[in-house]
TrEMBL record:
Its main location: membrane. It is a multi-pass membrane protein. The keyword Transmembrane helix applies. Residues 84-289 form the ABC transmembrane type-1 domain. The chain crosses the membrane at residues 20-47, 84-107, 119-139, 151-173, 194-219, 273-292. Belongs to the binding-protein-dependent transport system permease family. This is Carbohydrate ABC transporter permease. GO terms for cellular component: plasma membrane. Keywords: Cell membrane, Membrane, Transmembrane, Transmembrane helix, Transport. It is found in: Cell membrane. It comes from Cohnella fermenti. The keyword Transport applies. InterPro entries: MetI-like, MetI-like_sf.
Amino acid sequence: MSTATATKSKRDFHQITRGWNVVFNVIAALFSLLCVFPFLFVTIISFTDEKVLASNGYRIWPEKWSFGAYEYIFKTGDTLLRSYGVTILVTVVGTIVSLLMIALYAYAVSRKSFAYRRFFSLFAVFTMLFNGGMIPTYIVVTQLLHLKDSVWSLILPLAMNAFYIMILRTFYITGVPDAIIESGKIDGAGEFKIFIRLVLPLSLPGLATIGLFSTLGYWNDWFNALLYIDDPNKVPLQSMLMRIESSMQFIQQNSLNSAVSLEALSSMPQDTARMAMVVLATLPIIFAYPFFQRYFVQGLTVGSVKE
């Protein structure tokens, strides 16, 4: 093959590759738009006037904008802000506690020198398949640990997750070479110092992945508050929004029997308020993704390799 023919073939190959790259980028952009559009549409509806929405239906660009839904929700005053504070506290502290416990457990069962490695691995897998149930858990939290109306009742039940342990265990096995640990032992470092100084810096992708999962779990949790929290000052955001939703449904169901409820129903945004709740519950957690994005894909990829 002559040099001119080879150059022409190479040029044609680059043109075909560039064309397919454009096609794939367009497909990725359309897929990204499909993922983002539902949240944008919900946000637009939350700023739509309730009466216009009832008469004209859902539209991408509403005829009349309104902050009525957010004004209705924020009529709770400091209660909603306090719920935000409780949720942020539970999410931050819970994620730290969860990462610490899961990282230590996963590191122990990942070491071949640990005598009870197989037993504790099977124990973690067993809890993925079977659990004590809601009533025993409630008894342990309220009567044994005495955590009723405590913020810790929102943190500890979600702190350990066997699935996350298995992910991080596999990450330790595939992502942390044994030679590094052996070099630490040669230098006279103990197990805890090796874990802090050598293993954790190499495990940032896996820790970031588990941290993101834990953060989402704590932020979206409402069921534990329903079980353990009666103090209105300790109600998290998701539970508070559910209570607002329940009060709206109560007013709607009893509007025919009460003049006061009928008056409240006429001035109450219904669909737009529900959309506003979604925005208030989702928007803050979106800002957590940039902090984990750097390590997220790598953590999922490396942690999925079999032992």
